[in-house]
Amino acid sequence: MPGPETVRDYLDAVEAQIRWKRARAVAARELETHLEDQREEFLAEGHPPEEAERLAVEEMGDPVSVGADLDRLHRPRPQWGMLALTLALLLVGSWLRYALTRAGAPWDEDLDRFRCALSAAAGAVVLMVAYLLDVSRLLRWAKWVYIGAVAVGVLSLHLSPTVNNASYFTRYVVLFYPVAYAFWLYACRGKGWRGLLAAVAGGIPLTVVCMCAPFVQGMLQLMVIGCFLLLLAIQMDWFTVPRRQGLAAVGGLAAVMAGAVMWLLFGAGYNAARIQIFLHPEIDPQGAGYQAVMARRILGASRLVGKGGDLPIQLNTVQGMELPPEMMLPEWNHDFLPTTMVYKLGWLPYLLLLAALAVLLLWMLRRCACQQSQSGKLLALAVGLTLAGQSAFAVALNLGFVLFSAQLPLVTGNLHSMVDCALIGLALSAFRSESILRDTAVPVPRTPQTQTA
Fold first, then answer.
1. pTM of the model
2. Based on the number of CB atoms within 10 Å of its own CB, is 233 exposed (0-12), middle (13-18) or buried (19 or more)?
3. Closest by CA position to 426, among listed 378, 392, 359
4. I need a labelling partner for 297 at 20 to 30 A (CA). Which of 57, 105, 185, 365 fits?
5. What number of other Cβ atoms are within 10 A of residue 251's Cβ?
6. Where are the beta strands (DSSP E) in 226-271?
7. CA distance linking residue 346 with residue 149, whole number of Å
8. Among candidates 113, 111, 389, which has minimal Cα distance to 229?
9. d(Cα 379, Cα 139) in Å, to the nearest integer?
10. DSSP labels for 377-442?
11. What residues contact residue 337 under an 8 Å CB cut-off, 6+ apart?
12. What's the pLDDT tens digit per position in 53-89?
């Protein structure tokens, strides 16, 4: 049977051997570029167009063999280990919420069981949906992903209920902002200093949404992670500017931002008082320092394994019923769920839970370091650093260092766990699609500065 004589027929024969549908278009584009180059060479040698195309196809080799090789090269890389660990942490968090915070009445226990099961199931669905997303398509629409994230944040500011003086849903939208900023950086590639300026300016709307929420943790994470991603993008030569000058400019900007944050925290009298309470909550144990003092007392009465002992404080009563020690701590079943866990189960189970979460985060960050695609690396890093920041703030909060609300990833439950699952699924999708993620070549201007950089 004669082989294909045209580029299109050859590409069709090759694509038929590639089983992963998403990889077919990627492989075909790369192969078509190579065939066209070969055809141009034969045309330059004086061959007629039809003959030049036939010779280019013949020189490429058997399409079945080429397709089989491309099929082996372009295969999805399942992340079963990280998926399984994420689902395990999600299930453990759901069980902890039910076991540690369930109500006393039988009908309330059934409702709590249903809520925890629904939260875990919804989180698992969100995880798998994000995992199966086509990241390459999202990158092609990177600018609109960023614009959509800003629009959703602004919309949530107007529609969300206010809980504890903050826009409730905006807090969860903001957790996606480091990833949205990574998409914006990708959209600014190859535009020189104009692109770098646009990349810096893109962080302003996201920060404004964080401030309007207000959500201090989200704003701090966005600023720190955003600066890191921007520096990494410059190092990868995304903006085609001299690296030293670009890094120096962003480093100076980071210093100015750090100074502004320090002024906001220490310059105003109210915030300075909060910092003082953060460091020494015992100076106002019944007021601003109450949560920190209670958390430290509960942890001090906890054991290595098993339920903690009595607390050296007067317990409150409600309708003649004495409250358990952990229920005297506001947010004992949400932000301070880890403190409740330590008191009821002991330090060892909590430390094991933290160790499992640390393994997931370190595994993810290590996988980022091995990622071949620059865009995939930046997206996954945004996710890993966001989750690491949440974890650090939550651990500090539950040790009695209370500055603002923070929740432990995959454990707190409800909408927060769903957001965490969506972020993790997106990172694992980038890892899974590594073989088909292609970073568009960035043209480097031929200037003396660029040549010496």
1. 0.84
2. buried
3. 378
4. 105
5. 13
6. none
7. 40
8. 389
9. 10
10. HHHHHHHHHHHHHHHHHHHHHHTT--SS----TTTS-HHHHHHHHHHHHHHHHHHHTTTT--PPPP
11. 96, 97, 100, 101, 408, 411, 412
12. 778 877 887 878 887 877 777 777 888 999 999 999 9
Q: pLDDT tens for residues 98-114? A: 888 876 545 466 777 77
Q: Which of 125, 120, 131, 121 is nearest to 82 (CA)?
A: 131
Q: Is 129 helix (H, G, I), strand (E, B) or coil?
A: helix
Q: Which amino acid is at 438?
A: R
35 and 29 Cβ atoms separated by less than 8 Å: no
Residue owning tokens 């694509």:
15
- Distance separating alpha carbons of residues 168 and 173, to the nearest angstrom: 9
- What residues contact 287, with CB distance under 8 A and at least 6 apart? none
Rounded Cα gap, residues 3 and 7, in angstroms: 11
* CA dihedral of 112, 114, 116, 121, whole degrees rounded to 10: -170
Residue 166 CB-half CA count within 13 A: 19
Residue 128 half-sphere exposure toward CB, CA atoms < 13 A: 7
**pLDDT mean across residues, the chain:** 83
How much is the pLDDT for 252?
81
Beta carbons of 417 and 411 less than 8 angstroms apart? yes
